[in-house]
């Protein structure tokens, strides 16, 4: 049971688990064997003893298998040696042990453990000779020797050449062993027993070792060395003739014969018989042997290929012309062979094309055309015609090229390669319209290729490569419009990031040069195109993080280039606010792929501020409420991002004189006020607490607070009061600026035309007039028109009070107006009479 269990573990590939069971089995069997030997006294005991010995043999063989599987060579050798020692008692196991060693040799050969493999194969051969009655047979022995020769050959042919040759010679001799037999008998033995693999291997070893032509010839004839060595002088010609005769009688496959010829030809072995190489002469003998074979075309193709490889092109052409004649006289090649011939012809044509021998390339392409019938529809024929068209174009034979392309369109009209051929001819004829049509068709076909590349069995870059070539040809021919179209399609299909960005850069440059030459009315479409290219660049930069070949440094360089382009375009198109805004936003987005150094942060901040400013400006225009809301909300988003960047930027240096804080405040105030944002008052609370806020800022806030659709009179008044207080604190009051601020404050506090005014409001406004009078009295710089305005407002307020029966208040306000009258200059006399009349009333 232990023996069977151990063998089971070995068979399922778990040899390590088998060892314990096999040791137990061996221990039990050996104890039984010892007892039997001590107490043996009859024939029955002898038989039992023989059975036990067989079991010991089996366990040892299993242990050897386990050791080989685990790579324990020494243990395996010990087990096999014990088995060999037992063969005298168990001769019937000779065949089994020989095959076991052969299997070990095969396994170690596959593992490339050539030293171990050679040992096991030698053991297999030696064991196979121990008892001819129970031997594996000559065929198996020859098989062992061939693998042994192969092992020596692959291990180190130069070091183990003699051993390899000895092994293969023994293999061949075992199959046709004789020392004295006439030639006809020898041929009979060879025909009956010689294995092609042995013959082939011997020739291969001799060729590899650099042996003489005489030795190789002897290998070809497969004659034992002892038979031919007495006649060295006659051997030279005799051997070759014998080889041909031998192959006439041997049952060898066509592929084997071709491989043999190939082996000889590849090693350049020449036997000077009629000045032809030994390999070619051997090849010429093969068709006679396989004359009735349907695969006869293989020999022809093989012959043509080697003629070309040996630079015998004229002979190859003669052979091809024979095949063409045979094609139309009932000796057609099989379809597979014909396809192979087309490949040979196209390869030779391509070689001449690369060497710029276009006429010669056409000659070979014409050979291929000869096998097609007139009117035949075939995609390969279309490809052939396109190749011929390329040759004609290089030879300046445009009409022939056009005819070839026409034939290609007939065979394969929906091929991108055919459209490319049409495109090349259109460009050559300077036919812009047709070239543009061809590029558009190529673009559509490129899209199909990218979607169905697996089904169509084409390279995924085919469409991109052809569009790239189309763009290059257009640029070389100064056809910028066609080049732009080709590059646009190209940018949609390119997978390689470097090529894509190069394409987009080229597009941007081309469109910019076009824009510069256009008037303003025609620019919109091209500007939109540039925006599209820059947006695509941004998208691909974001996707490029997954591409290993596109490094971080490459990404940064590309991002810098595109962000600077977007910046320059934003500045350039300042007359188009929407476009300017879009370019600034794009410049910011592209800069996010750049390192956040000081220069980039400043650029980002500026882009966002400018984008917000444009959104606010566009929102002030006469647009619908929904559009206004969208623009102001968008501006607010830009400002929020800008504030975060500004926080970081301020940590990098001194920005005391930078107006960014003020701009952020004003822009945010405007956006929130016009959106009726409930958080506006919270924003302003922080503003009132700022000690360094400027008068101008407060005045702008006041103005924005009342600018439609915003209406925040309370905030407006508070801002103007704060501004007025700051004016008062100036060492020298700027009367002009003070007058404007006071004017606005009075206007917002004392609306024109209102008669029912709260006493508190009037009292508050009274203080503003007193402040104004104080300043007017202290300086001659107060604008006279503002004094006149103050006088008029005070007087009119008094009149309004009078009409509602508030005579005391009316007298006070009119008196205040008279105080301002006293400070009028040239206008005083004009208004004195007017005021006097009203005083009389």
UniProtKB/TrEMBL annotation:
Top-rank lineage group of the source organism: Eukaryota
Keywords: Meiosis, TPR repeat
Keyword Translocase: no
UniProt KW Nucleotide-binding keyword: no
InterPro entries registered for this protein in UniProt: Spo22/ZIP4/TEX11, TEX11, TPR-like_helical_dom_sf, TPR_rpt
TPR repeat residue numbers: 382-415
GO cellular component annotations of the record: central element
UniProt record, GO biological process: male meiosis chromosome segregation; reciprocal meiotic recombination; synaptonemal complex assembly
The name this protein goes by in its record: Protein ZIP4 homolog
Species of origin: Lonchura striata (white-rumped munia)
């Amino acid at each position: 049971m232990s023996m069977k269990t151990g063998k089971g573990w070995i068979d399922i590939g778990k040899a390590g688990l088998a060892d314990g069971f096999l040791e137990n089995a061996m221990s039990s069997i050996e104890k039984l064997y010892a007892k039997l030997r001590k107490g043996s006294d009859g024939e029955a005991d002898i038989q039992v003893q023989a059975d036990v010995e067989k079991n010991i043999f089996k366990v040892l063989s299993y242990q050897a298998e386990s050791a080989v599987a685990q790579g324990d060579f020494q243990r395996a050798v010990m087990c096999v040696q014990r088995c060999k020692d037992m063969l005298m008692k168990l001769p019937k196991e000779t065949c089994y042990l020989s095959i076991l060693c052969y299997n070990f040799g095969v396994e170690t050969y596959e593992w490339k453990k050539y030293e171990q493999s050679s040992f096991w194969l030698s053991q297999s051969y030696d064991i196979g000779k121990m008892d001819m009655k129970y031997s594996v047979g000559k065929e198996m022995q020859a098989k062992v020797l061939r693998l042994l020769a192969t092992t020596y050959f692959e291990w180190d042919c130069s070091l183990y050449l003699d051993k390899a040759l000895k092994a293969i010679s023994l293999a061949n001799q075992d199959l046709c062993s004789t020392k004295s037999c006439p030639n006809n008998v020898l041929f009979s033995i060879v025909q009956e027993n010689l294995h092609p693999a042995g013959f082939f291997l011997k020739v291969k070893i001799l060729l590899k070792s650099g042996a003489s032509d005489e030795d190789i010839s002897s290998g070809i004839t497969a004659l034992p060395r002892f038979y031919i060595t007495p006649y060295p002088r006659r051997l030279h010609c005799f051997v070759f003739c014998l080889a041909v005769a031998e192959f006439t009688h041997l049952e060898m496959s066509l592929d084997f014969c071709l491989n043999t010829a190939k082996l000889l030809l590849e090693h350049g072995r020449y036997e000077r018989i009629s000045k032809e190489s030994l390999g070619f002469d051997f090849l010429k003998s093969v068709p006679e042997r396989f004359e009735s074979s349907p695969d006869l075309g293989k020999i022809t193709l093989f012959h043509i290929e080697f003629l070309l490889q040996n630079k015998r092109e004229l002979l190859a052409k003669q052979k091809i012309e024979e095949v063409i004649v045979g094609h139309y006289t009932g000796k057609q090649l099989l379809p597979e062979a014909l396809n192979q011939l087309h490949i040979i012809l196209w390869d030779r044509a391509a070689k001449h094309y690369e060497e710029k021998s276009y006429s010669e390339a056409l000659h070979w392409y014409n050979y291929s055309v000869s096998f097609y019938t007139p009117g035949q529809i075939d995609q390969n024929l279309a490809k052939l015609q396109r190749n011929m068209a390329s040759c004609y174009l290089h030879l300046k034979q445009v009409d022939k090229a056009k005819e070839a392309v026409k034939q290609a369109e007939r065979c394969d009209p929906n091929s991108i390669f055919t459209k490319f051929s049409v495109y090349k001819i259109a460009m050559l004829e300077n036919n812009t319209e047709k070239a543009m049509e061809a590029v558009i068709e190529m673009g559509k076909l490129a899209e199909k290729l990218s979607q169905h590349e697996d089904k169509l069995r084409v390279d995924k870059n085919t469409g991109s490569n052809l569009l790239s070539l189309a763009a290059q040809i257009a640029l070389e021919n100064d056809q910028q419009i066609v080049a732009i179209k080709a590059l646009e399609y190209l940018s949609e299909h390119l997978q390689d990031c470097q090529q894509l960005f190069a394409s987009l850069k080229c597009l941007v440059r081309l469109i910019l040069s076009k824009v510069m030459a256009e008037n303003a009315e025609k620019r919109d479409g091209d500007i939109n195109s540039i925006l599209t290219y820059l947006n695509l660049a941004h998208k691909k930069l974001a996707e490029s993080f997954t591409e290993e070949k596109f490094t971080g440094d490459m990404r940064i360089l590309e991002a810098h280039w595109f962000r600077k382009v977007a910046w320059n375009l934003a500045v350039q198109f300042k007359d188009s606010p929407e476009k300017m805004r879009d370019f600034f936003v794009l410049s910011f987005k592209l800069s996010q792929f750049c390192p956040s150094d000081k220069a980039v942060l400043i650029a980002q901040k500026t882009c966002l501020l400018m984008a917000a400013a444009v959104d606010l400006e566009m929102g002030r225009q006469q647009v619908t409420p929904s559009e206004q809301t969208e623009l102001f909300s968008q501006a607010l988003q830009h400002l929020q991002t800008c504030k975060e960047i500004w926080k970081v930027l301020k940590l990098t240096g001194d920005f005391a004189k930078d107006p960014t804080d003020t701009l952020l405040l004003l822009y945010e105030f405007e956006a929130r006020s016009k959106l009726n944002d409930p958080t506006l008052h919270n924003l302003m609370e922080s503003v009132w607490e700022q000690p360094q806020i400027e008068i101008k800022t407060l005045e702008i806030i006041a103005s924005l607070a009342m600018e439609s659709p915003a209406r925040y009179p309370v905030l407006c008044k508070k801002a103007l009061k704060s501004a007025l207080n700051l004016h008062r604190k100036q060492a020298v009051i700027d009367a002009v600026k003070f007058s404007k601020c006071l004017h606005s404050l009075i206007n917002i506090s004392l609306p024109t035309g209102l008669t029912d005014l709260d006493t508190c409001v009037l009292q508050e406004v009274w203080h503003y007039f007193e402040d104004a009078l104080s300043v007017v009295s202290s300086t001659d710089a107060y604008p006279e028109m503002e004094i006149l305005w103050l006088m008029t407002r005070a007087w009119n307020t008094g009149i309004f009070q009078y009409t509602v029966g508030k005579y005391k208040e009316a007298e006070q306000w009119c008196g205040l107006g008279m105080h301002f009258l006293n400070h009028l200059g040239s206008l005083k006399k004009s208004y004195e009479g007017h005021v006097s009349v009203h005083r009389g009333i």
